[in-house]
């Protein structure tokens, strides 16, 4: 029963070319789907979030139990987030962290608590070409800064698909939140801190954009600067 359901999900994923991000990459290995990542509403439809002001823009888990286990890592480790397929659409990626006051389990992530630790932007060439290094990746790996304070964090990856982003609300956000317990951390002060939702209006030049014509001369990555520790 379970197997046939999973193969049906795989077929639907191929047909619609959407994707979810159900796994973390820990010590180079891909973890079981929804083990350390909060199950998202679209776990069987792969449909994106398009309203950047909605509550689901944070972790997309309003219709699921939103529970997951928490995996222990060290500050300075390279970890990642893995999709159930590939990042099929042209677009960019941002990875945000938020530190829970204590246990991350069941923590909502309210308030201006999120900071960006990684991004994959576009490559422009003065209007002659634009390319998308995140496109077709299956997973996104990134370093946790060595000075990241010890504690429990939500890890939120968003892959912003821009193929139909030329009208408001057209950009598609594929996102999920994992749970990590960071040990051996430092005394860095992560920032700038933003709220999610709240970080975007949807009118940013990197979100409301026609990527096809005219070819953009430049690309402005949405969100705050990356905190590198
Ligand atoms: C390109 O740069 C200009 C000038 O700074 C800016 O107004 C525009 O929004 C940028 N375009 C994109 C797609 O980021
Ligand atoms: Cu899609």
Major beta-sheet overview: 5 strands, mixed
For the record, give the distance between the C-alpha atoms at the N and C termini, rounded to a whole number: 47 Å
Which small-molecule species are bound to the chains here?
Answer: 2-acetamido-2-deoxy-beta-D-glucopyranose, copper (II) ion
> What would the CATH topology be?
Coagulation Factor XIII, Chain A, domain 1
Q: Give the uncertain stretches in residue-range form.
A: 9-15
Oligomer: single chain
CATH A-level architecture: Distorted Sandwich
Order of helices and strands: HEEHEEEEEEEEE
Instruction: From the alpha carbons, calculate the radius of gyration and give it in angstroms.
Output: 17 Å
GO cellular component, one term: extracellular region
Cofactor: Cu(2+)
Catalytic activity: [(1->4)-beta-D-glucosyl]n+m + reduced acceptor + O2 = 4-dehydro-beta-D-glucosyl-[(1->4)-beta-D-glucosyl]n-1 + [(1->4)-beta-D-glucosyl]m + acceptor + H2O
EC number: 1.14.99.56
Q: What do you see in this structure?
A:
It holds the Pfam family AA9. Residues 18-219 form the Auxiliary Activity family 9 catalytic domain. Its cofactor is Cu(2+). It is found in: Secreted. This is lytic cellulose monooxygenase (C4-dehydrogenating). A hairpin with a 2-residue loop joins strand 1 and strand 2. The chain has a five-stranded mixed sheet with strand order 3-11-10-5-6. The chain has a four-stranded antiparallel sheet with strand order 2-1-4-9, with no helix packed on it. Strands 7-8 form a two-stranded antiparallel sheet. The protein contains two helices and eleven strands, in the order H-E-E-H-E-E-E-E-E-E-E-E-E. It has 229 residues and is mainly beta. It has a single domain (19-195), classed as Coagulation Factor XIII, Chain A, domain 1 (Distorted Sandwich). It is globular, with a radius of gyration of 17 Å. It starts with a helix and ends in a 46-residue tail after the last strand. The protein has helices at 2-16, 56-59, and strands at 23-26, 29-30, 71-74, 78-82, 91-99, 114-120, 123-124, 130-131, 139-143, 151-161, 172-183. The structure holds 2-acetamido-2-deoxy-beta-D-glucopyranose and copper (II) ion (CU). Residues 16-18, 89 line the site of copper (II) ion (CU). Residues 205-206, 209, 216, 218-220 line the site of 2-acetamido-2-deoxy-beta-D-glucopyranose.
